[in-house]
Amino acid sequence: MNSQDVILGLLMHHSLSGYDIKHKMETFLSYFNNASFGTIYPMLSKMEKEGLITKESVMQEGKPNKNLYSITEAGQYQFKQYMYSPIENDEFKSDAMTRLFFGEFVEAHIMVDVLEEFLNRTKVNLERLRQLYVDCQPEMSPTQEICIQIGIHNSESKIHTLTQGITRLKNVEQK
Amino acid sequence: MNSQDVILGLLMHHSLSGYDIKHKMETFLSYFNNASFGTIYPMLSKMEKEGLITKESVMQEGKPNKNLYSITEAGQYQFKQYMYSPIENDEFKSDAMTRLFFGEFVEAHIMVDVLEEFLNRTKVNLERLRQLYVDCQPEMSPTQEICIQIGIHNSESKIHTLTQGITRLKNVEQK
DNA sequence: CAAAGAATATATTGACTCGATATATATTAT
DNA sequence: ATAATATATATCGAGTCAATATATTCTTTG
């Protein structure tokens, strides 16, 4: 899976600009997939050259012009090839957890700060996902619902573990 | 956080070779951080040039020679700089969840396969983490314990959501 | 005993990706 | 007015991965 597969998936419903794609990814996919403009724009150029998508320049009122990209039949075929291919391993990279792993080398109060910051960020993320679920549930596919439930339950379990951990670490600190 | 910070953290306890570092990362950190040889070896060369680590060639019996790297005072200082710096955002990239998100474009039985494969991999991962916890708990720091608990609870919550989801999707399929 | 496979060990390359930066227009708020 | 925000595209350096290459030693298996 690379950004090409995700872009094709997003174009299956509607034609989109590079900017639209970034926005959609941030809104709906960011808790398990994301791409920067530095990935999206060069990839769109490459995909157009390969005939997976077509570009159309669209004039807009009150906004700069945009390049609207549409998926071709070759693109649809390529997307299905991806969906039938073997599943790749998940990769989770967490700076907060890396710090927890090396926590013994700094003062305990620093690690309490890391835990509390990690907890807050997880809470913010959970609220966003819950709101997204409320807003989009009617038009979500069954597998999309599983997807967001995994995100929500994951956040909830992290909040639980972190809250417990903070209490325990503060007790250790006081003794 | 980049691979330099993780390598320095691993060298805080013992001197290690590039190969040792890869092995340690896979055993203890792989559920939230990882690096390939293509990252580790060039990074070690760079860090040696910068005086963060020193290299020593060690003869071994029954094994090829190895380059043993040790952290310098400058390296220890650099590592603490990292530990006191602002926390970066987590990034989670999941191919399985990306497929779930786009599940509407392929047959339901394909998505059942994706869910079952995802479930199995999560179960394998959970077992590995539980075993690691049992094996290492006595020598783990308090924050390392929180770290692995997050990993274990995360897997457990995913297993729960996936199991529910598979049942629901199979019911939808039969109707 | 020979051959194959696994483990140890280091290194390189191409492709992918991110974050920062640059540029430009239009709308909204102060 | 002018600052900030939203829309929109593009590029570059740095970091990273997966695959590949090379070489030695130990273990297993036929």
Automatic annotation (TrEMBL), chains A, B:
Annotated Transcription regulator PadR N-terminal domain residues: 7-80
SUPFAM superfamilies assigned to the protein according to its UniProt record, in alphabetical order: Winged helix' DNA-binding domain
Keywords of this entry: DNA-binding
The keyword ATP-binding is assigned to this record: no
Protein known as: DNA-binding PadR family transcriptional regulator
Signal peptide extent: none
Highest taxon of source: Bacteria
PANTHER family (alphabetical): NEGATIVE TRANSCRIPTION REGULATOR PADR (PTHR43252:SF6), TRANSCRIPTIONAL REGULATOR YQJI (PTHR43252)
Record-linked InterPro entries: Tscrpt_reg_PadR_N, WH-like_DNA-bd_sf, WH_DNA-bd_sf
Gene Ontology molecular function: any one: DNA binding
